[in-house]
């Protein structure tokens, strides 16, 4: 079955954000490409953006969290976007707590981790980079759904 891998855009702080995500999820980056690594003469990158992230990938289980910095000439991304959330299916209540606690540092909690009306352990928040997340542990599925 195909995997769904979230891709997040940032306004120049992708590397900082991904180091934060790595501190919560663990693992190593599968890819870090900076704009300076590209040589596309018809699409020059401003000197002050050459160190910014063109693509970064952090494997998390079978999935990959990916992202980049959006070049200034393309406009800023909305840091208060509310059309989507990244949903994490934890394998245990303890893992759900660890991930929720780690990712909410410096962010804002919308729904604290607690037993939900639908029978799972659930919480929802916006992290300090403006990305919205949901963490869920369903004891019937144990991270498999």
Automatic annotation (TrEMBL):
It comes from the Bacteria. Pfam families: Glyoxalase (PF00903). InterPro entries: Glyas_Bleomycin-R_OHBP_Dase, Glyas_Fos-R_dOase_dom, PhnB-like. Residues 10-135 form the Glyoxalase/fosfomycin resistance/dioxygenase domain. This is PhnB protein. It comes from Algoriphagus ratkowskyi.
């Amino acid at each position: 079955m195909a995997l769904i891998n979230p891709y997040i855009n940032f306004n120049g702080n992708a590397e900082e954000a991904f180091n934060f995500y790595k501190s919560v999820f663990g693992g190593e980056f599968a890819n870090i490409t900076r704009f300076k690594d590209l040589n596309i003469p018809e699409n020059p990158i401003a000197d002050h953006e050459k160190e910014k992230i063109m693509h970064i990938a952090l494997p998390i289980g079978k999935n990959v969290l990916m992202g980049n910095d959006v070049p200034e000439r393309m406009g800023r991304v909305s840091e208060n976007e509310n059309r989507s959330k990244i949903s994490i299916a934890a394998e245990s209540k303890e893992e759900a707590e660890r991930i929720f606690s780690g990712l909410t540092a410096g962010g804002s909690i919308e729904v604290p981790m607690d037993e939900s009306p639908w029978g799972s352990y659930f919480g929802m928040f916006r992290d300090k980079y403006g990305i919205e997340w949901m963490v869920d542990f369903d004891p019937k599925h144990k991270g498999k759904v």
